[in-house]
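User: Hey, my collaborator sent me this sequence without any context and asked if I could get a structure. I don't really work with proteins. Can you help?
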Amino acid sequence: MKRLVLPALLIPVMVFATQVKGIVTGADCGLEGMTCDLSHLLTGHELLGVFNEKTKRFYFLTNVPQKILVYLFGKEVSVKGKKLSPDAIKVEVLKSDHRVFFRK
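Assistant: No problem. I've predicted the 3D structure and written it out in structure-token form, which is a compact way to encode the shape of the chain:
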């Protein structure tokens, strides 16, 4: 009697391209629906991401070095990438003021 074993990787994973504009801020503030005060940057303990003020949503950026986000703290950025979950983006391009700060 032969058994047919199918690999578990046959289940497709849905990944969608997305573009988000927002302000670089800390996760604690962003998840509360607001941007951080500039003094929060100096504490150095918050994970940074992007907060969209129109939708009041915070997005974690999975592959951007935190030192780039520290430099852009409080500034408006444009993010293009693949949405991994409702609140996480794998960034392909990160821009601010028409300057590219990260490109995959």
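In plain terms: The two ends are 49 Å apart (CA to CA). You can pass these tokens on to your collaborator as they are.
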